[in-house]
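TL;DR need structure tokens for one chain.
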Amino acid sequence: MIAVHRLTHPTDDLYLNPDQVQMIEGTPDTVVTLTNGSKFVIAERPEAVADLIRRWRASILAEVNVVRRPDLRIVE
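>> reply
TL;DR here they are.
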């Protein structure tokens, strides 16, 4: 899950499943559309959301590599 913030509740985290994100629009506010049709207007820029998704997916792949190859270590 990635944490973003609604424009109407900027201090509360909104957790989205990146696998359910269908589209991210910056029109001028950022609108995230999920595969079920739900839409959320969030404070983060589209580029930042795309980066969060990329980092989330990379973390999943890194975790799989550790399970498959316990001799590999992740350095952050």
